[in-house]
Amino acid sequence: MDEVYLQNGIRNPLVAIANHSCPAKDPYEPESIEALIHEVSDKMGWTEVGRGCFGKVVPAGAKVVIKPNLVLHFNQGNGGMLPLITHAEILKCVTEQVLKADPSSLIVGDAPIQSCDFFRLLDESGINEWSQDLMSRDTRFKGVLDFRRTTCFFEKRMRMPSENIKPFENYVLFNLKSE
């Protein structure tokens, strides 16, 4: 089980696990996250010399979308932002490694809860600053996008939706039932 996840006793090439012993200092330091990404990539057989951790799964010239987990701009409990989003350092490292595989374009995007203030989430997590910087340095990176077609806010406990804010023609539907 240490090498690749076994599902019903069969090696599952879609899942790998890297153990991260949380050090006394920040567990999300870039070097630590990069080492974990490399470990998982090596276990999965994705690493290609000269093309990074995703070199064998991202063809050169591909159009790539990274879908992190961006849920909400604030935690309604006491947990802070950490349980609500993919940590910015993980997102940065994965993005940099995908760019090493030489895609033609790369987008990071998600569809958070409808009431999420997407721009506030990006600002408070540090993702916006990082994204703007990377777009200025690498034209293949197209930024972090909000994929929602419907958003809402609450006024006096009433849900106030904004629907069809992006054209349906801009979307491709996938049936992932078999996956």
Layout of secondary structure:
Layout: E1 6-7, E2 10-11, H1 30-44, E3 63-66, H2 88-100, E4 105-110, H3 118-125, H4 127-137, E5 141-146, E6 151-155, E7 158-162
Parallel strand pairs: 3-4, 4-5
Antiparallel strand pairs: 1-2, 6-7
Please list the strands of the largest sheet in the order they lie side by side.
3-4-5
Structural class: alpha/beta
Separate helix tally: 4
The 3D shape can be described as: globular
Q: What is the terminal separation in angstroms?
A: 21 Å
> What portion of residues belong to β-strands?
15-25%
Provide mean pLDDT, rounded.
Answer: 87
Helical residue percent band? 25-40%
Radius of gyration: 18 Å
- Number of strand segments: 7
The largest sheet, given as strand count, sense and whether it forms a barrel, is: 3 strands, parallel
Which ranges are low-confidence, i.e. pLDDT below 50, for 5 or more consecutive residues?
none
Task: Summarize the helix and strand pattern as letters.
Answer: EEHEHEHHEEE
Report on this structure.
- This protein has four helices and seven strands; from the N terminus they run E-E-H-E-H-E-H-H-E-E-E.
- It is of the alpha/beta class and 179 residues long.
- A three-stranded parallel β-sheet has the order 3-4-5, with helices on one face. Strands 1-2 form a two-stranded antiparallel sheet. The chain has a two-stranded antiparallel ribbon with strand order 6-7.
- The model has no long low-confidence stretch (mean pLDDT 87).
